[in-house]
Amino acid sequence: MSMVIRSKALRLVILISTLLVALIITVQLVWLQKVYFFEAKQFNINISKSIRGLYEDMPLTHEPVGVEKLIENPSNDAYLIKVDHAINMDTLLKNLSNELVDFGIFTDCKVALFDNTTQQYVIEKYIDLPDAYHLSVNHDIPVFERNYPYVIMYFPHRSQYIIQQMFFWIVTSSTLLIVLICFGASVFYLYRQKFLNEIQKDFVNNFTHEFKTPLSVIKIAGDVLQQPNITQNPEKLSKYAGIITEQTVHLQHQVQRLLEIAFTEQRNLQLVKEKFDANDLIKNAINDMQPLIEEKNVVIHTSFITTEPVVYADKSHLFLVIINLIENAIKYAQKPVIEISTYRKENYFHIAVKDNGIGIPKEDQKKIFERFYRVTDGNLHQNKGFGLGLHFVKKIIDAHFGEIEVDSTLGEGSVFIIKIPKNYI
Ligand code: ADP
Predict the structure, then answer these.
(1) How many angstroms is it from 8 CA to the middle of ligand 1?
(2) Are 215 and 250 found together in one domain?
(3) Chain segment 123-164, per-residue pLDDT in tens
(4) pTM for the whole structure
(5) What is the CATH number of the domain that holds 227?
(6) Is 156 in the same domain as 16?
(7) Comparing C-alpha atoms, which of 319, 298, 209 is closest to residue 254?
(8) Domain limits at 223?
(9) What's the domain count of the chain?
(10) Which of 55, 218, 269, 275 could form a disulfide with 399 if both were Cys (CB 3.0 to 4.6 A apart)?
């Protein structure tokens, strides 16, 4: 039970941290957007100020209206300044570039005089500001049709310029984001480590228990067998000898488990390959499991390939693989009926173990091969186990460059299929 709660708490912590990180990222994005709008507004204000300055520097029009009325901003990157026809473009350019520098606008600008009689630009000039950020100057100035002459100021790189102004904010936001990601990753890593540690602690506790009980039973049986008059009671003698054998088998089983665990920790598996009859290997495995099969009234059907049942693989490891699959098929079924078949398909030797057990939910089918993964339905597991068996199985099959597949329907059963490639046959 405690393991389930721990994993729930862990999930909650991860969920909350993810939500917090998402919130911070959203706030950052909103903040960056606000800065962008602020910079865009500032740009606009500075341009307006420059144009006002220009009106003060030189006479542009004789119209007796306020400057605001003479400026138009039809698109974000274009400003139209109403002028009279007779205007000296060179003086205008000189004055305008001074004003732009004064107000700190350092992005390239195209200036042109619009002739309302022909409805096109007559003079086009390019203001090369000292620190201007040039990308390319080959931008055509968009035409805004008006029935009066105007000078257009067109800023082809306005957006880039504004983003450049935001450089500091972008760098700080990105740094914060990276710090957050690193922080999140370390928290996740630490929790994962803690989670694994706790599982391992449970595991050691359980295992100690698994060893202690049979050992004390053997000790008692040994004591009984040492009684001086035991030979006069052959029934008792055979009963206690039987107990010792039974407990030893149990211990052997546990030792095998321990080996599997040590094995799964190993990075590179050393396979000792040989040629052998896979059908025989399966028969031996079934034979070895006879006590368990009888105890749970298991029905096992087999359908074996008759020609070429020989594979080239690590026999003892493959034996444990088969034992693990049959054990699971028995463990996760009420009244186990198991079908084991071997066949060849597409250059692979197949071993299929089919059961009529509880089945595995779709979302868990990939994960069951992970170390310590066990399917939980929110309650405590009814069957003992550590979630290592299938991880071990997969490791062995991977080392043989084979594949393992699972197909399962909840409540109906599962089939595990091992495929051993041609080179290993
Ligand atoms: P363990 O059986 O020790 O828990 P395994 O690695 O052998 O570990 O299996 C992982 C999980 O996969 C099991 O906890 C179980 O939930 C599920 N599982 C494995 N085999 C079967 C099966 N034949 N039928 C239903 N569920 C299975």
Answers:
(1) 20
(2) yes
(3) 888 877 665 555 555 668 888 988 888 999 998 888 888 888
(4) 0.54
(5) 1.10.287.130
(6) yes
(7) 209
(8) 168-264
(9) 3
(10) 269
